[in-house]
Each structure stands twice: as structure tokens, then as C-alpha cells.
Amino acid sequence: MRGQDRRQQSEGGVQNAEVARAGSRGLSAVSRKLVVRPMTMADKPAVMKISSRIWEGNDYVPLFFDRWVENGGFWAAELRGRLVGYGKATQLSPGEWWLEGLRVDPECRKQGVGRELSRRVVQRTLERRPVSLRLATADVNHESIHIIETVMGFKLYAQYRFLVGAPRKPRPGPPLVAPTVAEALDFIKRNAELAASRGLLQYTWLFRHVDRRYVAELVRCGYVFGYGRAGRLAGLLVIRPHRYHGNDIDISFVAGDTRALAAFRSFLSRVAHDCGTKSISGMAVSDEMAAAFESLGLKPHPRIGKVPVYEYPI
């Protein structure tokens, strides 16, 4: 594995050098001493402590800590022997990499730690020769956006609207159908949302490229629902348990005619009631899907206006 890592590092030398040059300008002495290493289970107490002070204690990293350590790509940043930050790189599909969970201890901000940690995590991921490397943030995270664009060198790929809503009282509605993989994939590909998102499908702040394998996975897990009329698919709904709040519902895709959307609205009311759902959310790039969300009772998030998705130019 060490030999393979060295070969990968050599192959990715040009990309890594570009990242290194971008990140080295203006770094403080503190960040030059930063040690970035694989996360271990022994780091859990320190990570829990940092996460408890992020997003008013609502950080999602603790939910995935054990799994991320086991899967790898979870990086810990140390300064003078103390854990001061971390970040995760995940392979969503062959060659498709996603960055998330980049955090810095609030006590160590404004010292260049976030810059250097971000640079190193990108460098480690580029050594794996990815086909794509993306991440997302909220428009209110101005400091993160500055680092993403100027230090990490990422370019804007797509920009989503974030919509949320409370479930409605359960109501009866027409039965839905289980579309085939081919039907679901064809419906998604013909919808304006896929073109607007440049091929991505969102799932609770995670954005993955749509292909047959991904749609087959969603259909197999029972997340895809259709509305049929006159022997054809007139609407499609993709819902999943929220990644951070399992009882809540995340809508990855919804589209259809007026009758289909009404059927989906009734269906969601019953599912939410059965699951004890408190919140339903989703993201959309196109006006068409944003309007579909609004027909389901969702409204723009009160604080987050846009969710930009970035891609590293490979």
C-alpha cells in the first residue's frame, strides 16, 4: 500500500503542486506546523468536543464518526499534539469523490488552520486520481467560500435553492406505482432539473452524479415512487430518510403534472405521519423543481438562500 501511495503521489504531482502553491501563499507559522494524519478511534473525544461547539451543537460529524474512521479518508489536523480540525473525503461512485465535514476548532480560527487543512485534504484526495472532486457549502459561510474559491481552487459547478417545510395532516390519495429502473432514469434525464444541476442529484447536502447504477440502487431500496396515468409515468418522486435526522424526510427529486404532484403531496402526508416526521426538505436548481417543492408545501429556508456546489478542475 505504501508503494502504491507513492506511485499515486508521483502521478498526481502536477495537480498537487498546483494545490500546494495556491495554499502556501500567506500561511501563518502555525499552519506550517500543522500535522494532517488519518483519524483514529482514539480521536473521538476531541472530535466530539469540537463538534459540540459548531452549529450550536448540531454538527453532523458525530453521527458518522465511527463509519468514517472505518472507511478511511477521514483526516485529523494536529497542532503541537492537539487535534484542531478534521475533514472527510468519500468516494460516492468509482472515481467520484466528495469532500465534507471540514471543521476547525473555534479556538484556532483565524490562524490559517482551515486553509492548510483544506489544502492537505484536497492533496491527499488528488493522489487517488479522481475523475471528479466536489463539495458544497451554504451561502452564509462567507469564510468557507473564500477558502474554497481562492485557496482550494474550486470552481462553481451548480447552485441550489434550499427549501424546507412541516408535514401536513395525513390525507388519503391515489396509489403510487413502483417504476422500473429504466422508467425512473428516463424520467429524471428528461427533466429540466438534471440539465440545470449538470447531472447531479442531491441528498441532504451530498450531491452525486446520476447514472443507471445510482438509480438502480435507489429503486432497489424502495426510495422511488411514480404516478401513472393512461399507461405512462406522469410523475416521479425520490425520497429518503434525512441523513442527519432519520425520522425527517429528504426529497431528492420530484416532478410531474398537477395530478401527480397532488398525489405526492397526499403520499408524503401519510409517510410523515407514520414516521413521526417533523421536517421535510429538499434542494432544487431549476425553477421547475423549485415550483414542485412549493406545491408540496415547502418554502425557501429562512436563513440559507443558496447552496453552491463546487468542483475541482481536474
CATH architecture of the largest domain: 3-Layer(aba) Sandwich
Total of domains: 2
Number of continuous helical runs? 12
Identify the CATH class of the largest domain.
Alpha Beta
Strand count, sense and closure of the main sheet? 12 strands, mixed
Computed over alpha carbons, the radius of gyration is 21 Å
Distance between the termini: 24 Å
Pattern of helices and strands: HHHEHHEEEHEHEHHEEHEEEHEHEE
Assign the CATH topology of the largest domain.
Answer: Aminopeptidase
Number of E strands: 14
Considering DSSP H and I runs of 4 or more, what fraction of the residues is helical? Answer: 25-40%
Structural class: alpha+beta
Shape: elongated
Strand content: 25-35%
How would you describe the overall organization of this protein?
A hairpin with a 2-residue loop joins β2 and β3. It is elongated and about 70 Å long. The strands form 2 sheets. Strands 1, 2, 3, 4, 5, 6, 9, 10, 11, 12, 13 and 14 form a 12-stranded mixed sheet that branches. A two-stranded antiparallel ribbon has the order 7-8. The protein has 12 helices and 14 strands. With 314 residues, it is an alpha+beta fold.
Short description:
The protein has 314 residues and is α+β, with helices and mostly antiparallel strands. The chain has twelve helices and 14 strands.
Describe how the helices and strands are arranged.
Elements: H1 2-11, H2 13-24, H3 29-32, E1 35-38, H4 44-51, H5 61-71, E2 74-79, E3 82-93, E4 96-104, H6 113-126, E5 132-136, H7 142-151, E6 155-165, H8 181-190, H9 192-196, E7 200-202, E8 207-209, H10 212-220, E9 224-229, E10 232-241, E11 249-256, H11 258-275, E12 280-284, H12 287-295, E13 299-300, E14 306-311
Parallel strand pairs: 4-5, 11-12
Antiparallel strand pairs: 1-2, 2-3, 3-4, 5-14, 6-12, 6-13, 6-14, 7-8, 9-10, 10-11
